[in-house]
Design goal:
The strands form four sheets. Strands 2, 3, 5, 10, 12, 13 and 14 form a seven-stranded antiparallel beta sheet that branches. Strands 1-4-11-8-9 form a five-stranded antiparallel beta sheet, with no helix packed on it. It has helices spanning 2-24, 309-321, 339-359, 384-390; strands at 49-50, 60-62, 79-84, 92-96, 106-114, 120-122, 129-131, 137-143, 151-155, 165-171, 179-185, 196-201, 207-209, 219-220, 289-292, 326-332, 367-371, 392-399. It contains four helices and 18 strands. The protein has two domains: 49-220, Jelly Rolls; 281-399, 2-Layer Sandwich (60s Ribosomal Protein L30, Chain: A). It is of the alpha+beta class.
Length: 403
């Protein structure tokens, strides 16, 4: 009887362990996701590699009191501080994932973000004391090596909140990316570079989800009650990019919304057979998709056909007339090719359209591209006409009115 009892307990333990293991299958973890390390300037936290501009100092482990940054962490004791500068340089960190993302698999990810009211340093342009507090945004890239910005997995709006908020992302990788990069970047479109900061803490694991699943809204984090810093921490660098901490009056805090990035109540209607010679600004809205059925390419290539120049030039005119509009060029194929070839071809075609627009004066900061392969058909691939409809270029309005 005792042996049966022991055997039953062991069997239950193994079943539980097997189930637990199965639940964790495919979950990608980060090294030091809370950016814990000794508070210090100009050195990224352990596990993270600096990817910043040559000649500029790396990001900082805060709060150390350096640059007057004293905000307490939302998780653990420290967090990552990154800046954008008025000399058109910005900071980025990277690391290798515990396992590669899978192409075609969707993932959920979250991270806490905010902006410091004070980030006192020296302007690289004027060489005078400056407060790096103009709101910046976070961009997240997947790649195949450290600092490789192969594909934009997600980005935030401008981080205006000065209290910690949890930001939710849905990653849709188009390749098996094995590295991830976090980049601080300017408001887009970028009329001129400026000095700003973002703070990062408590990054989650990257968890597989259904591609039909929507991510939740960003919610306010519970605020720590008292900061844990050393007020006597060193405040001076020794290189030409030194950031100092002279007395500086507090700046007015931007409003801290209780919720960030709310999901749209209703998805804008898709515009079929979009003709930018007739479309006006009042015809479009942020988040809307416009299908350009008259953008054609050579078979199985990313070479734009000559008959496509006219509609593309109309798109150039529209973007020139509306300089605040930011777009994504989406490439789509029919279903007669393999996933790998479809993804590569659609990405290459979307990229070449962006190059066409950029060569005609549209700022690259306003242009993004993405290849969707054959995953989003709008007609049956069983017939010639359906395949023609599926093989298309779509323009998505990512931003307008500088919103």
């Amino acid at each position: 009887m005792r042996l049966r009892f022991v055997a039953g307990v062991l069997f239950s333990f193994f079943v539980f362990s097997f189930k637990l293991s199965g639940q964790q299958e495919g979950v990608i973890t980060l090294v030091n996701p809370s950016f814990e390390d000794m508070p210090r300037h100009s050195k990224p936290p352990r596990g993270w590699m600096d990817c910043g501009s040559v000649g500029e100092t790396p990001p900082d482990v805060q709060p150390s009191g350096t640059f007057s940054v004293t905000k307490p962490a939302v998780d653990g004791d420290t967090y990552l501080g990154m800046v954008v500068r008025d000399n058109d340089t910005w900071e980025m960190v990277s690391q290798r994932l515990s396992m590669p993302m899978k192409k075609g698999q969707c993932y959920a990810f979250s991270i806490h973000l905010c902006r410091s009211e004070l980030y006192v340093s020296t302007s690289r342009i004027s060489e005078e004391t400056a407060n790096y507090t103009t709101p910046a945004k976070l961009r997240i890239y997947g790649g195949f090596d450290h600092c490789d910005k192969q594909y934009l997995l997600g980005e935030t709006n401008l981080i205006i909140n000065t209290r910690w908020l949890e930001y939710q992302f849905k990653f849709e990788p188009i390749d098996n990316y094995s590295y991830i990069s976090f980049e601080a970047f300017y408001k887009t479109p970028t009329l001129f570079p400026y000095n700003g900061n973002i703070l990062l803490d408590n990054a989650s694991a990257i968890t597989p989800i259904s591609c039909e699943e929507e991510v939740a809204e960003s919610l306010p984090a519970k605020q720590p009650e008292t900061p844990r810093i050393n007020p006597q921490a060193p405040v001076k660098r020794t290189d030409s990019t030194a950031k100092t901490t002279p007395p500086q009056p507090p700046v007015r805090n931007d409003p801290s919304p209780a919720r960030m990035n709310p999901l749209p109540a209703e998805k804008p209607a898709v515009v079929e057979s979009a003709d930018f010679s007739r479309i006006t600004r009042s015809d479009i809205q942020k988040g809307q998709t416009l299908r350009m059925n008259n953008i054609l390419f050579e078979a199985d290539k990313s070479v734009i056909s000559k008959e496509s120049y006219t509609p593309l030039n109309e798109l150039v005119k529209f973007l020139s007339t509306n300089p605040d509009v930011v777009i994504e060029v989406g490439g789509h194929t029919n279903g007669l090719c393999s996933d790998s070839f479809c993804d590569q071809l659609s990405t290459a075609r979307a990229k070449v359209v962006c190059e066409y627009l950029a060569q005609r004066g549209i700022s690259r900061a306003r242009l993004q591209y993405k290849g969707y392969g054959r995953r989003i058909p709008i007609a049956s691939n069983d017939y010639v006409e359906g395949r023609k409809k599926n093989q298309r270029v779509e323009i998505k309005i990512l931003n307008m009115n500088n919103s």
